[in-house]
Amino acid sequence: SAVISQKPSRDICQRGTSLTIQCQVDSQVTMMFWYRQQPGQSLTLIATANQGSEATYESGFVIDKFPISRPNLTFSTLTVSNMSPEDSSIYLCSAQRGNDSPLHFGNGTRLTVT
Amino acid sequence: QKEVEQNSGPLSVPEGAIASLNCTYSDRVSQSFFWYRQYSGKSPELIMSIYSNGDKEDGRFTAQLNKASQYVSLLIRDSQPSDSATYLCAVVYLSLSGNTPLVFGKGTRLSVIA
After folding, report:
1. Which of A58, A83, A97, B102 is positioned for an S-S bond with A113, CB 3.0–4.6 A?
2. Where are the strands (E) in chain A, listed by range?
3. What pLDDT, in 10s, does the model give residues B8-54?
4. What is the pLDDT of residues A60-87, one digit of tens each?
5. Per-residue pLDDT, B88
6. Please, is B45 exposed, middle or buried when counting C-beta atoms within 10 Å of its C-beta (0-12, 13-18, 19+)?
7. Contacts of A104 in chain B (CB under 8 A)
């Protein structure tokens, strides 16, 4: 399985600021996805990070709020922009080697917005 | 709408007993199913994959799939206190963009009592 490094592991940010989360996979993967897990809830897909093109966002998530980059097959970033307390959550990077394959997750970024 | 349903629990079982976790899904065309274990404060960890109808065994874990009834289950034999965690059912779905992210259930919290 892929080893996924995500940073920062946690951060406390002020309202109105932005945070960029980095995700590095130890080998080339086909797909990378970003999920959010709010306290006591399950995982919600934010977007698919497409290599070399714009990310594909799920309903309720937009590029202006969650810009995503994926410059190559092993690295992606997620930015949480203009943060509000409602953005406080765990953000998880995941990687998939091929269609219909399981996802493997990074350790997550625990974000608190004050 | 892609939905994955699980009983949130908590499910309490005595040490050494069999824990049975169930999951139903709404998308008839789904072909790949996964069980993840998530300890508090940690990211999800893959424990089982299943793609065909029937049973699949791996150590103390058995996954069962019935595509006609659209349900998948996980049995944990000889439950141990270390099995206490939230178990997430996940189903692959084919998005409009052709990607195959996972949709997660809300998870069942399992507590194994020593």
Report:
1. A83
2. 4-7, 10-13, 19-25, 31-37, 43-49, 56-57, 68-72, 75-80, 89-96, 104-105, 109-113
3. 889 999 999 999 999 999 988 888 999 999 999 999 999 999 999 99
4. 999 999 999 999 999 999 999 999 999 9
5. 97
6. middle
7. 46
A104 touches B: beta carbon within 8 Å:
yes
Q: How far apart are CA A95 and CA B97, in angstroms?
A: 17
Interface test with B, best of A6, A43, A50, A105 (most B CBs within 10 A): A43
In terms of CA atoms, which chain B residue is nearest residue A3?
Answer: B45
Those residues with Cβ within 8 angstroms of residue A58's Cβ, 6 or more apart along the chain or in another chain: A44, A45, A46, A47
- Residue entry with tokens 């109808």: B53
Residue pair B15/B112 in contact by the 8 Å Cβ criterion: yes
Q: Are strands A104-105 and A109-113 parallel, antiparallel or unpaired?
A: unpaired
Q: Is A92 on the interface with B (CB under 8 A)?
A: yes
Distance CA A65, CA B64 (A): 40
Q: Which of B8, B31, B38, B43 to mutate to test the interface with A (most CBs of A within 10 A)?
A: B43
Amino acid sitting at position A102: P
Q: Taking CB atoms and an 8 Å limit, are B44 and A105 in contact across chains?
A: yes
